[in-house]
Amino acid sequence: MKKFLALMLALVMVFALAACGEPETEETAPATEPAGEETPAGEETAPAEGDSDLAYVKEKGTLVVGITNFEPMDYQDENGEWIGFDADLAKAFAEYLGVEVQFQEIEWESKIMELDGKTIDVVWNGMTLTDEVLAAMECSNAYCNNAQVVILPADVAEQYLDTASMAELNFAVESGSAGEDMAIENGFTYTPVVDQATAVLEVSSGTCDAAIIDSLMAAAMVGEGTSYADLTYTIGLNREEYGVGFRKGSDLAAELNAFFAAAYADGTMQEIADTYGVTAALIPQE
């Protein structure tokens, strides 16, 4: 009898424990914490930074233009304001975008690094569209013709009518420029300097025999009626075209091409070119 009672008691305990161990229903199960916050309905996430240069420039409200002192393209007036054919076009383009323009002098050989580091947004400084430039930047359509020419003292210019006669001269050239490329291509001895204006100064002061600079700059800087009336420019070493450079893949290049087409069609580009004496070098824009 005692064994029977003990067995019954054991069975009761088993059924009681089984009832306590049943899984909780949905109504009784405790709520779990969410894995993470969800984006509210209808709210968009921000686009990835750097997707659009145009959006980037408009958001910060400034177009930072990398330049050097290069008359008649970029130079300062008596009040320290940057003017010139390129400078005035850059101001008009910034207005077209609805932003402020900011000019920043750069070392020419560092222009690509400045662009990629976003210290500037554009290189707009009578820049020759070389293979290196086209590979490293997103460039606008060509807008000006140019050439590299030789600067010499006017009283000896007739002695140097071709590259062979110039073989013994020491040239001043802007470091990293198309002028330096021409010096290398022709096997000239040369001294690299910070910009083209300094190259002209080197010839005027007698520290170099000659310089190689852009023809548009030569027309504005040397000869009768200029600060370097005792200098002249002689032979052209090549033919080239100017373009404007942005970061590789930048959508600002297409935007500038659209601006160029509109500014050429309404006469704005020609009017600015007339102001700085570069009308003959303009390339029609479509």
From TrEMBL:
InterPro entries: Solute-binding_3/MltF_N. It comes from the Bacteria. Pfam families: SBP_bac_3. Residues 1-18 form the signal peptide. Residues 24-49 have a biased composition (Low complexity). Residues 24-52 are annotated as: Disordered. Keywords: Signal. Residues 62-280 form the Solute-binding protein family 3/N-terminal domain. This is Transporter substrate-binding domain-containing protein. It comes from Candidatus Scatomorpha merdipullorum.
